[in-house]
Each structure stands twice: as C-alpha cells, then as structure tokens.
C-alpha cells in the first residue's frame, strides 16, 4: 500500500489516509479510516481515477487481517513430530528451498506451481513469476486476484 498524508476527521479521533487498494492490479484509490493506530474501515476515494468512488467487496471490507491476533509474526517450520516451531528466516527459507529441490528432482520442474497473494504488492507478484520462470523454468504461476 502506498500511503499519503493523514487527515483528521472532525473531533472524533478518526483519521483518513489516502492509499491504493492492494487486492488486484486495477489500482483503486481508497481512504483508510484509522483511530488510535487501528484500521476501523476503508472507503472508496470518490475522486479515484480507476474506481470513481466504487470498490469491490474485498477492497472495502477485507482489512481485518492486518491487526488479527492470529496473524503470523515469525516463520514456522514443522518438526519431525509434526508440530510447528518458531524459526529464523534463514532456517525457514532453507527448508522451503530444500522442499522445492526435492520435488523438482523427483517429479521434474513442471511439478512446481506457485500462486501469488492478492495482498502482495505488484513487485512481489513480479518476483514470484520471475522465480518460477527464470529460476525453475516453468510457467506454472498464477495469482488469486484474477477474476
């Protein structure tokens, strides 16, 4: 999300911050409503050139994941006992890379598939497709944002 200057609304402590919705590639302008450093709502920007005051259901109502208490704050890896344990980023990335290599060695490069998140910035989606195409030699990549 790209944020611009926050503007206070009346005297109720709510602030409005202009941004761009991160759910798909349309680039809808949104106003993020916050109070006490917590997102309390999202409104469509009435002057947004891409959306002209309209938003889809995801863009307007799916923001609670940002502050959800179950949101992961560190990587987890599965131990030999089947339970998940806190790990460093290096440990988690090494484990993931080993898993990719094992699958590619056993079943071939086209057995690997990636799906990018609609919540990720465009640059992250670009890097995902580069990893799959240039790194693994497959076009098996998709994004959950397409309709």
For the record, give the distance between the C-alpha atoms at the N and C termini, rounded to a whole number.
Answer: 21 Å
Fraction of residues in helix: 25-40%
Number of helices: 3
Judged by helices, strands and strand pairing, the structural class is: alpha+beta
Stretches where pLDDT falls below 50 for ≥5 residues?
none
Overall body shape: flat
| Strand ordering within the main sheet | 1-2-3-4
- Beta content comes to 25-35%
Q: Judging by the overall fold, what is the CATH architecture of the largest domain?
A: 3-Layer(aba) Sandwich
Main sheet attributes: strand count, strand direction, barrel closure: 4 strands, antiparallel
Top CATH class of the largest domain: Alpha Beta
Q: What name is given to the CATH topology of the largest domain?
A: Rossmann fold
Rg of Cα set:
19 Å
Tell me the series of helices and strands, N- to C-terminal: EEEEHEEHEHE
Overall number of structural domains: 2
Overall residue-averaged pLDDT value: 88
DSSP summary, beta strand count: 8
Description of the structure:
By secondary structure, the chain is an alpha+beta fold. The protein has two domains: 6-67, ADC-like domains (N-terminal domain of TfIIb, Single Sheet); 76-143, Rossmann fold, CATH 3.40.50. Helices cover 26% and strands 25% of the residues. The protein contains three helices and eight strands; from the N terminus they run ββββαββαβαβ. It has helices at 57-61, 89-107, 122-135; strands at 6-9, 14-20, 29-35, 38-44, 76-78, 84-86, 114-116, 141-143. It has a four-stranded antiparallel sheet. The mean pLDDT is 88.
């Amino acid at each position: 999300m790209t944020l611009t200057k926050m503007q206070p609304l009346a005297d109720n402590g709510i602030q409005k911050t202009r941004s761009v919705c991160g759910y798909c590639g349309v680039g809808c302008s949104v106003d993020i409503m916050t109070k006490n450093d917590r997102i309390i709502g999202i409104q469509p920007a009435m002057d947004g050139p891409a959306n002209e005051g309209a938003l889809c259901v995801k863009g307007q109502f799916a923001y609670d994941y940002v502050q959800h208490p179950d949101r992961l704050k560190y990587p987890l890896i599965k131990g030999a006992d089947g339970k998940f344990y806190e790990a460093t980023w290096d440990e988690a990335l090494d484990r993931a890379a080993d898993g990719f290599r094992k699958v590619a060695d056993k079943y071939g490069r086209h057995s690997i598939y990636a799906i990018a998140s609609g919540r990720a910035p465009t640059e992250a989606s670009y890097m995902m497709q580069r990893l799959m195409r240039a790194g693994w030699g497959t076009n098996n990549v998709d994004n959950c944002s397409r309709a």
